[in-house]
Every structure is written in structure tokens, then in C-alpha cells.
Amino acid sequence: GAGAPIAELAIDEVTFRLAVGPVRHHEVxxxxxxxxxxxxxxxxVDALRARFGGAVVSSRHSKLAIGAAMERLLAxxxxxxxxxxxxxxxxxxxxLEALLSAAPARPDGG
Length: 110
Fold this sequence. Notes:
- The protein is built from three helices and four strands.
- It is an alpha+beta fold.
- The strands form two sheets. Strands 1-2 form a two-stranded antiparallel ribbon. Strands 3-4 form a two-stranded antiparallel ribbon.
- α2 crosses α3 (90-102).
């Protein structure tokens, strides 16, 4: 009805406990809650990108898949340079996305 939410925005922080140590990961999730929300989502994403630039990257991967790929990425010989403090670097995220995109999708979303 009138005034009902059309979309939901959530900001998540996850700490993956990996062999190299804890690595923090942040996500902004935008989900449609009504038919009108599906039309609104592209505008919401555009607004976030306009405000935050390259810090906002689209991804359709689950947190489980991200954590598993992050573990593989950081275990590689050049993986150590991809973490600054307790966070993946921008280069690390680019390599993570390449790794996730190269992997065949599993039926469970992972």
C-alpha cells in the first residue's frame, strides 16, 4: 500500500577468519521489496557510485563464496600484498572479482 517500502538498503560488515588472519569485508546490499523497487534499484546504485566512486563495485556473489575465494587468493604466493591492515586492497578486490567470475556458479549460490 501507500507508504510501504519499495526497497531495502543494508550495510554489512563481515570478518573472515582466514589462515592469514582476520580480514574485514564490507557490503552495501540493496534489495527490492515491491515491484516499484525493481525499477528504483538501478537509480540507487547509480547514486551510490556517484557518491562513492570506485569504492562501490557490483557483485552477485554470496558471502560464503567471497570468503572461500578470498582464502584461495590470499594463500597464493602474491597474496600477502593484497591485504593492508585487516582489509583487502583495491587491487585485492579486483583480483578477487576476477577469481569469482572465473569460477563456475554453484546451484547453492556459492
